[in-house]
Structures are given as structure tokens and as C-alpha cells.
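Example for tutorial group B:
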């Protein structure tokens, strides 16, 4: 699984990265300090952990851009602000975690997100297209 962690607080990024690796060593995790950095990477991620309040582009704006490019990404907000929960729901986020997040709650949500991302990957692989030419 390809996972992105986006938070302008480096300590938070490292902590989330460590919790992911503790649960699943086989995941490829990349940390970004802003929404702009994530979008500039131009790489699709299976799961994105995203803070809302960041310098520059906030997490809601970033999530909108991610959704336009990849509807299958599992988005999880990790934030200290509960006021954005309804905006997040409009973006079909998988979960909304409030800081400080306990390790137990994180692991629970992460395990569910891994299952969901796996299902979405399988669905993409099963899709096929039929082209019909009129002559």
C-alpha cells in the first residue's frame, strides 16, 4: 500500500509514520508538510492521512483536489478541529480523527482503511472497457 501523511507539524508526521510501520512494515509511507507538496508529487496514494489546518493550502482544499484526480483514495483527516466534519463528509472521507489520537484508535481506523483500500484496488483491477467501433 502507498500511504501519504500530510501535516505541517513534523513531529505529528513522524508519529503517524511510526504507528503505520509498527502495524504494517510492508506499507510505503511518504510524509509531506503541505497540501501543495502532496499534489506536486503527482502520485496516486491508496490512503492519505491529512491535517486540515496547515500553512498554504488547507486540508479541505487539498482533499478536493485529490478527489478530482483519484476518487478511490481513502482519505482520513487527523485534526484538532471538529468544525470541519461536515465539509469532510461532502468529500467522502473515510474517517475523521481528532487530535490527540490514541494509538489504539489509530490502529483500529488504520486496519479498517487498509481493508477498504484493498477492496477499492480489487474493484479497479476488475474493471474493463469495451470499445465498439462503428464502420
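The residue assignment follows.
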Amino acid at each position: 500500500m502507498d500511504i501519504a501523511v500530510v501535516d505541517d507539524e513534523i513531529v505529528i508526521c513522524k508519529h503517524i509514520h511510526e504507528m503505520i510501520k509498527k502495524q504494517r512494515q510492508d506499507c510505503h509511507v511518504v510524509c509531506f508538510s503541505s497540501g501543495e507538496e502532496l499534489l506536486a508529487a503527482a502520485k496516486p496514494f491508496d490512503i492519505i492521512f491529512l491535517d486540515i489546518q496547515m500553512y498554504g493550502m488547507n486540508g479541505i482544499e487539498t482533499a478536493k483536489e485529490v478527489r478530482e484526480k483519484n476518487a478511490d483514495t481513502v482519505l482520513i483527516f487527523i485534526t484538532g478541529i471538529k468544525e470541519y466534519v461536515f465539509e469532510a463528509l461532502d468529500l467522502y472521507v473515510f474517517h475523521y480523527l481528532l487530535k490527540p489520537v490514541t494509538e489504539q484508535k489509530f490502529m483500529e481506523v488504520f486496519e479498517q482503511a487498509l481493508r477498504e483500500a484493498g477492496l477499492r484496488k480489487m474493484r479497479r483491477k476488475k474493471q474493463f472497457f469495451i470499445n465498439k467501433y462503428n464502420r
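Strands lie at 2-6, 28-32, 47-50, 74-79, 95-98. Compare this with the pattern of hydrophobic and polar residues in the output above.
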